[in-house]
Amino acid sequence: GTTAHTESLIFTNSEPSILLDIIETMEKLGINRNEWKCQLAIRSQENPNGKIEEDLKSWWSDKLQIKKENIVSMEWRKGNGKEFGSLRIFISNAVLFEIFVNGLLRWVKENILNLDESVLVPILRGIVASEGTLIVGKKLQGVNLACDKKSEEPFLFRLILWKLGIKTNSTKRLDMLNITGLVILCILSMFK
User: Fold this and answer.
1) DSSP secondary structure, the chain, as one string
2) What is the pLDDT along the chain (192 residues), one digit of tens a residue?
3) pTM of this prediction?
């Protein structure tokens, strides 16, 4: 997911290749990979302090090709999670913030009705990857997309889905869109 806070860009994921793509894309825009700061987020039954924490930092540092010192903190919560946790990468850069929030995102909002499938499918991939939760029983039952009910997200998510011919189910929750049925296979097939 991506959020903006105090002119910072924040990306969080448990898949290193996605974060590495972000870092490498930003390098093409002139943002040095060593400008990123990181926070490790771990869910496990026991607090992974000491050697385990250092091993996790080394693993992420190696995967993202960043200095271990850039991982400035670790957040631990009791529970079950991914073996290597997830990593939040963030950068405080007012110019970059302006480009994303008042440039790229504004452009997408203003032009969404004119965008074709070749642009909308990757946008939907990103939304499902960052905001989607699979609903699984004995088989795959659906996908929930989390959204901020106080923002334009529900409208924009519905508009993208509508443009791609995907209907959402009505729910009482304003902070979630629900998609079930055969359309789930179509959404999941978008991931290469």
Assistant:
1) -EEEETTEEEEEES-HHHHHHHHHHHHHTT--GGG-EEEEEEEESS---THHHHHHHHHHHHHHT--GGGEEEEEEEES---TT-EEEEEEE-HHHHHIIIIIIHHHHHHHGGG--HHHHHHHHHHHHHHHEEEEESSSEEEEEEE--TTSSHHHHHHHHHHHTT-PPBP-S-TTEEEEETTHHHHHHHT--
2) 444 446 777 888 888 888 888 888 888 877 888 889 999 888 776 777 778 888 889 999 999 999 999 999 888 777 676 778 888 888 877 767 776 766 766 777 777 778 788 778 777 777 777 777 777 777 767 788 887 777 777 888 888 888 888 877 777 777 777 777 656 556 556 554
3) 0.57
